[in-house]
Design a protein that fits this description.
This protein is an alpha+beta fold and 774 residues long. It is built from 23 helices and 14 strands. Belongs to the resistance-nodulation-cell division (RND) (TC 2.A.6) family. MmpL subfamily. It comes from Streptomyces telluris.
Length: 774
């Protein structure tokens, strides 16, 4: 089938290249502007208790985490007449915006469009007496908070943020205003992600082109992988644009598309062109050389793409759309890279056989084809003389590198994934410093339960007192008042009633804690949201005796639910990936041992990669090497899953290449030692060149200002380095020497079935006379 495809592409080479160019242009036009349709979230588990709590608070109480938080700072006091007038004017303008559903501020309390402060009134909503909510004023009385809730999310929410922020953050009389909140941070994340994507392309494309010129020795040959990558990336952008019509897709999918598309397009094109040149050097006519190259190297491309895609498909097992978006982008770009390489490379070789297939500017400086990779052959033979010692030393070194992972602390990403000097990050840090009670907000919702009778008011009062006395709680606010350490705190506004008399206080700042949908309580946690103490606090809140079954929301509860969801789904995802990969490699190698060996060595490599992830990004080491970022003391709970699937797939790419060359050598010689040495000699120049090219792309991505992309790039790059330096040249020969005949063992019935799955290299006549089988 692959041979027929190659001959057809060569026969119709000009129409194939023209159609590919037209398809790429059409996909690029359709996918243009996809960034505006992508979302920045995707961390929370849909349907979880925290997600239900967030939906209830947003839809029925107009509460929960606000979309925009403004920090209005006065030169003296926010209670000064000029500051108060400017603040009320700001609240009035925000409240009347058609994209705003409600505003909560220090000067007004919660207001909606029907109760906006009149322009220039200088008073409370509707012109009444001033209302001051001390919880929204900093301790030095110079900063006041204004929380804004938008009408909907997605593109409508983004448009509202773009419209509101320029005027809201402009000078407001004596007030100087800064903005934060999840809608503002999402906007900043999208902006920095787009900048990172542009920077990656500006660095990776010219650097990759120069490296490809050195590898291929031809400018025409060097441009071929980039053209394949352009077709694959354009197709993936179109696929993502289509997916946004039916599901949410993360903005980080774009970064993964560019990096993986370029890396694998270079890989697959390199395999095909290198094999074509080998066939030409052996004396084959161009047409036969092309067919032979696609028959052998094309088989590697197909199996490699299938293996990488299977690994990334494992991300679909998780309900978090951040992870699913990585699967959508990764699987699309992998399959399109393989398809584009198998179609475009034969067509281009047929059109320009001399410029691509034979031209080499550095031919005089390269070793003769028979001597290329001789150093790798000698290394393999030395390793196989002491296989047990090499296996022990290499395994020990990788396990030592993995040790920091024992100290991993998982969390969620927050504003600190952005550069430290970003205005949004500075505003968020000012919010943490000036309003410690808002550092870790936890919402406890009581759906359907209202304090609408004397006994129920007292019950809510007792419940809030009890929660405020729990370890790790700074305070509690609800419809009955404010509580600290089990005692009622003074209200910040006049109250006509009190829980002691069985009626609710008349404070406007407390009215939004009840609605026909139920009641909720705002709990202020003492520790950072993703610290173990905060996770324990959420558990205590869920277990505390409540007037009705509670739903606990907030950042900590969302993280806890997401972590539990990942833990539940992870064994199934890993098991499915392992079984699918094993079956694929079983069909490819016709061996039971080699697939198991491939899985074990890849896992060993990734344990060291995860250790580096903790050592660098959780503990904050080696910033001089990887660039500046903010170490938060945690690792985002979703990133090891993404890094595992991506790095595992790329490692399988090199494993398949090496096994294919070893299998061909074994078919010729029948000897494991000689076959392993010959296979490494043939494959090592290819996978080291490929690793260098992939590293170029990943290191360009590692210049990202968004820490999540930097983490993914650095850890995947380290995995590629370990794979090319330790796993393939040292552990593979050592383990294969130790296994001996077991490398090629397969029970007879499966062997007969496996022969029909994938084409296998045919043994040459000298294999019949091999002196000693391996």
């Amino acid at each position: 089938m692959l041979t027929s495809l190659a001959r057809a592409c060569a026969r119709h080479r000009r129409p194939v290249l023209a159609l590919a160019a037209l398809a790429a242009v059409a996909c690029a036009l359709f996918g243009h502007g996809v960034a505006a349709r992508l979302a920045s979230g995707g961390w929370t588990a849909p349907g979880s208790p925290s997600a239900r709590a967030e939906a209830l608070l947003t839809d029925r109480f107009h509460a929960g985490a606000p979309d925009v938080v403004l920090l209005a700072r006065a030169p003296d006091s926010v209670d000064a007449p000029a500051a108060r007038a400017a603040g009320l004017d700001l609240v009035g303008r925000l409240c009347r915006d058609p994209g705003v559903t409600g505003v909560d501020s220090y000067w007004t309390g919660p207001v909606t469009r029907g109760s906006c402060p009149a322009a220039g009134s200088g008073g409370a909503p509707g012109g009444g007496a001033a209302v001051d909510d001390a919880a929204l004023r900093s301790g030095d009385a110079r900063t006041a908070l204004v929380s804004v809730r938008l009408d909907g999310g997605g593109r409508a929410g983004r448009a509202a943020v773009e419209r509101l922020l320029p005027t809201a953050t402009a000078p407001q009389g004596p007030l100087r205003v800064r903005a934060t909140g999840h809608a503002v941070l999402d906007r900043a994340l999208e902006r920095y992600s787009e900048r990172d994507l542009l920077r990656t392309e500006l660095i990776a494309l010219p650097a990759t082109l120069l490296l490809l010129v050195f590898v291929f020795g031809s400018v025409a040959a060097a441009c071929l992988p980039l053209s394949v990558g352009a077709v694959a990336v354009a197709g993936t952008l179109a696929a993502l644009r289509g997916l946004t019509a039916v599901t949410e897709v993360s903005t980080f999918a774009l970064n993964l598309t560019g990096a993986v598309g370029l890396a694998l397009s270079v890989d697959y094109s390199l395999y095909l062109v290198a094999r074509y040149r080998e066939e030409i050097a052996s004396g084959s006519p161009p047409e036969d050389a092309l067919a032979g190259a696609v028959r052998s190297a094309g088989r590697i491309v197909v199996v490699s793409a299938a293996a990488v895609a299977l690994c990334l498909l494992g991300l679909l097992a998780f309900p978090l759309y951040f992870l699913r978006s990585m699967a959508y982008a990764g699987v699309s770009v992998v399959l399109l890279s393989a398809l584009a390489a198998l179609v475009l490379v034969p067509a281009a070789l047929a059109c320009f056989p001399r410029a691509i297939g034979r031209g080499d500017l550095f031919a005089r400086r390269r070793r003769a084809p028979g001597r290329a990779g001789a150093g790798w052959r000698r290394l393999a033979l030395r390793v196989m003389r002491r296989p047990l010692l090499v296996t022990a030393l290499a395994t020990g070194a990788l396990l030592v590198l993995a040790l920091p992972f024992r100290q991993v602390v998982f969390g969620f990403s927050d504003d600190r994934v952005l550069p430290r000097d970003a205005p949004e990050v500075q505003a968020t840090q000012a919010l943490r410093d000036g309003f410690p009670q808002l550092r870790n907000p936890v919402e406890v919702a009581l759906p359907g339960w209202r304090p609408d009778a004397t006994g129920r008011v007292a019950e809510l009062d007792a419940y809030a007192r009890g929660l405020s006395a729990l370890p790790g709680v700074l305070g509690v606010r609800t419809a009955t008042g404010s509580y600290v350490l089990g005692h009622e705190a003074p209200l910040a506004c006049p109250a006509e009633a009190s829980p002691a008399r069985g009626t609710l206080p008349g404070c406007p700042a407390l009215r939004h804690f009840t609605s026909p949908a139920g009641t909720w309580l705002a709990v202020s946690g003492e520790a950072d949201p993703y610290a173990p103490a905060s996770t324990a606090l959420v558990a205590r809140l869920q277990e505390a005796r409540a007037p009705a079954p509670p739903l606990v929301g907030g950042p900590t509860a969302q993280f806890r639910d997401a972590r539990n969801t990942l833990a539940q789904r992870l064994p199934w995802a890993l098991g499915a990936m392992a079984v699918a990969t094993f079956v694929l490699l079983l069909a490819f190698t016709r061996s039971l041992f080699l697939p198991l060996k491939a899985l074990a060595l890849n896992l060993l490599s990734l344990t060291a990669t995860f250790g580096a992830m903790v050592f660098i990004f959780q503990q904050g080491h080696m910033k001089w090497l990887v660039g500046e970022f903010t170490a938060t003391g945690t690792v985002s709970v979703v990133m090891p899953v993404v890094a595992f699937c991506l790095a595992f797939g790329l490692s399988l790419d090199y494993e398949i290449l090496l096994l294919a060359r070893i299998g061909e050598a074994h078919a010729r010689t029948g000897d494991t030692v000689r076959a392993t040495a010959a296979g490494l000699q043939a494959a090592a120049p290819l996978f080291t060149a490929s690793a260098a090219l992939v590293l170029t792309v990943l290191l360009a991505l590692a210049t990202a200002e968004v820490a999540l992309m930097k983490l993914l790039a650095v850890t995947t790059a380290l995995s590629v380095v370990l794979d090319a330096v330790v796993i393939r040249p040292l552990l593979v020969p050592a383990v294969m020497r130790l296994a001996g005949r077991a490398n090629w063992w397969l029970p007879a019935p499966p062997r007969r079935r496996a022969r029909t799955v994938l084409p296998q290299p045919q043994p040459s006549p000298d294999a019949v006379d091999a002196s000693r089988p391996g």
